[in-house]
Amino acid sequence: MKALTWQGKRKVSVETVPDPTLQQDTDAIIEVTSTAICGSDLHLYELLGPFMSPGDIIGHEPMGRVVEAGSATNLKEGDRVVIPFTICCGSCWMCQRQLYSQCEATQVTEQGSGAKLFGYSKLYGSVPGGQAEYLRVPYANFGPIRIGEELPDHRYLFLSDILPTAWQGVQFTQLGKGDSLAVFGLGPVGQFAARIGVHLGMRVFGIDPVPERRAMAARHGVEVFTDGDDTIQEIKDATEGRGPDGAVDAVGMEAHGSPLGHAAHQAVGLLPDPLAAKMMKTTGVDRLAALHGAVDLVRRGGTISISGVYGGEASPMPLMTMFDKQLQFRMGQCNVKRWIDDLLPLVEDPADPLGVEDLVTHRVPLAQAPEAYEMFQKKTDGCIKVVLDPQAK
Q1: Which of 129, 249, 279, 316 is least buried, going by the fewest C-beta atoms within 10 A?
Q2: Within 13 Å, how many C-alpha atoms sit on residue 66's CB side?
Q3: What are the CA-CA distances from residue 77 to residues 74, 142, 160 (Å)?
Q4: Is the CA virtual torsion 168, 184, 42, 357 positive or negative?
Q5: Best CATH choice for the domain 163-331 from the list 3.30.830.10, 1.25.40.10, 3.30.1540.10, 3.40.50.720
Q6: How would you classify residue 319: left for phi > 0, otherwise alpha for psi between -120 and 50, otherwise beta?
Q7: CA–CA separation, 23 vs 329, rounded Å?
Q8: How many whole angstroms separate alpha carbon 210 and alpha carbon 76?
Q9: With b meaning 16 or more CB within 10 Å and e meaning fewer, what string describes 265-295?
Q10: For 145-189, what is each residue's pLDDT tens digit?
Q11: Is residue 377 within 8 Å of 351, Cβ to Cβ?
């Protein structure tokens, strides 16, 4: 089969690799009909190379049809399914508490990490990912989300990751109708987080330096701002001087406006992989402008929810300010299946309340994935969300 493989920093290529096969009676094989490039994939593309090996198949936002199912699954050939990016058993102590991203059956204990993820480095199990023609799905007796036949792929695809990630991010703020929410970063997760806030009756402020992203968010009732020096004060002025009740950081480790973090990124890229991996695990390599901005902006007693991925172990944080302002923090990999019952009716609603129809800016064949990665990273051609079609010839 054809699959997108990691080959080095800012280098991915489509290669012919062996077809996946069933390894357990709880496995399934799906033919991938749509698979998206996630902002988290750009961390593999740019920064997390020390935890990658040439030839690793990447991607963790797939959906498709079952072509083979193990005897212990409840799937059959032809079932249409979305595959959550977290791999979990559904029955362990963590899964019973809906902490699916901490599944004890798939925790990567040798790396000190939570549940295995599709296509996401040694840190999360080096499981072959979904930017491919076919995908082996472990624990298919629990993970896959069966969906209907009437709607196109893009109405369902984002249940694999970014839509539940955004939903969890907003839920973690514990805000509701009439409250105010700031969303830092209007990439795909930030777009959905902002729209979810509006859908739930909040006043939402969206912050991003990219005009196309701000324009997309504004179409959905979000008040948009650049990430300039005046933004914090402008939003505080709009909230009676206090700041919003909560914030979602949908940016993560590669935020703009973090010169020290950027220098650390470049230093990591110059080291041999074992030394770089050690540096990632012991030093502050994250670019923290968005998170520090959230600390500055949120009102006293407010909540900051972190959906963006961070990779450093000693990133400096303003603890005095955090303590003095009595801030609360929630964060973590998304527990995808916890939120599906809330989200499936919304993506199937003819009114499309979360604007799923207005997110994908580029759909290209899998063969064009290397160019799509470069476009997505550089934010050229108005690129906000890319979906790859592995079956296009």
Answers
A1: 316
A2: 26
A3: 10, 16, 20
A4: positive
A5: 3.40.50.720
A6: alpha
A7: 40
A8: 44
A9: beebeeeeeeebbebbbeebbbbbbbbbbbb
A10: 999 999 999 999 999 999 999 999 999 999 999 999 999 999 999
A11: no
Q: How far apart are CA 328 and CA 143, in angstroms?
A: 31
Which uninterrupted H or E stretch holds 343? helix 340-348
**Pairing state between β 28-37 and 386-389:** antiparallel
Other CB atoms within 10 Å distance of the CB of residue 357: 10
Residue with tokens 């929410």: 181
Cα 354 to the center of its chain, rounded Å: 17
Q: Which amino acid is at 87?
A: I
Scanning the structure block, which residue is given the tokens 């890229």? 269
Segments making up each domain of the chain, as ranges:
2-161+335-389, 163-331
Q: How many CA atoms lie within 13 A of 367 on its CB side?
A: 3
Q: What superfamily in CATH does domain 2-161+335-389 come from?
A: Medium-chain alcohol dehydrogenases, catalytic domain (3.90.180.10)
Question: Which of 227, 352, 202 has the alpha carbon at shortest distance from 193?
Answer: 202
Residues 6+ apart with CB under 8 A from 110: none
Question: Which runs of E-coded beta strand occur in the chain?
Answer: 2-8, 11-16, 28-37, 62-69, 80-82, 134-137, 145-146, 180-184, 203-207, 223-225, 246-249, 303-306, 328-331, 362-365, 386-389
Residues β-bridged to residue 11: 8
pLDDT digits (tens, 9 = 90+) for 246-293: 999 999 876 555 554 444 445 455 455 555 555 555 555 577 889 999
pLDDT above 70 covers a percentage of the chain that reads: 92
Q: How many residues does this entry show for the chain? A: 393
Give the integer Cα–Cα distance in Å for 265 and 287. 9
76 CB neighbour count, 10 Å cutoff: 9
Query: What is the full DSSP assignment across 213-226?
Result: HHHHHHTTT-EEE-
- Of 289, 273, 234, 307, nearest in space to 121 by CA: 273
**Residue 118 CB coordination number (10 Å):** 30
For the purposes of burial, counting CB atoms within 10 Å of the CB of 193, is it exposed (0-12), middle (13-18) or buried (19 or more)?
buried
